Fold this sequence. Notes:
Elements: E1 2-4, H1 7-18, E2 24-29, H2 35-47, E3 50-55, H3 65-69, H4 75-84, E4 89-91, H5 95-98, H6 118-122, H7 126-141, E5 145-149, H8 153-165, E6 171-175, H9 195-201, H10 203-214, H11 220-233, E7 236-245, E8 251-252, E9 261-269, E10 272-280
Parallel strand pairs: 1-4, 2-3, 2-5, 3-4, 5-6
Antiparallel strand pairs: 7-8, 7-9, 9-10
Helix pairs in contact: 7-8, 10-11
The structure holds adenosine monophosphate (AMP).
Amino acid sequence: MILFKHSKDLENYLDKQRQTLTSIGFVPTMGALHSGHLSLINKCKSLSQLTVCSIFVNPTQFNNQDDFEKYPKTMDEDVLLLEENGCDVLFMPDEIEIYPNAASREKHYDLGYLETILEGKFRPGHFQGVCLVVEKLLKAVNPDRLFIGQKDFQQCMVIRRLIELMHEKIEVVICPILREENGLAMSSRNRRLSASQKESAAELHRQLVWIRDQLTPYHFQNLKKEAMGRLKEAGFKVEYLELAKSGSLDLINEFENDGNLIILVAAFMGDVRLIDNLLISE
Ligand code: AMP
């Protein structure tokens, strides 16, 4: 695996590779890697001739300074894991490389409705920060395919919108959520949970499954009330628990039989904010 710190060096290297390779795949991450990230690397390897991963804890997407400062950093472990899993290229820039001056943080992206709901509503500025960094990374890597996780479902939609705004033709491959044995969605932030919090946190997925299984005969708002009660008992402070159309993320109040739906949740366990979701197919 080759490690790059500077965009220019990475661009030069990839330009040379492109003379002989036709498919470059890219997996952007914020590090503290777990099996969920590695499943993206493996999917990328199966569809690409060259797999590029990036690790950058992006300050502009944190709406909470404490969350940024406490974000787990395990660089040495990450490099080993990527090497073991056959990643070809790792891009690990410093903050100054991505944001050399104040102007480099100032662009605004028209994300419309997507920015007004769920993560957009509860984390003001978050998706603007995501777009800032992802645009810079996509320009540096110029991949044929981008591999991202359903775990961040709304972010997947934002990134599709960004690619549209950039007038790029990059195929977006959305990979399934990897979970711990107890159902808890894998997340770098899980490292900040105690063993007993990790057990309690599994309730998040359990309640999504419970709602999905009950949905047809019941009104969503009643199910939501019951599920919120159980999440509170498990120690969660819930920010949102919503049912939406998975194509548009239009929030709805009741089960509708005319399309694919998704249930999305964000909740705090202690001071750790967790998100999860579950797709409901027709
Ligand atoms: P992050 O490092 O949290 O920014 O995540 C990097 C990428 O890994 C994003 O596309 C995430 O959606 C994806 N990802 C995070 N957690 C999981 C998981 N449990 N299963 C699959 N992909 C994940």
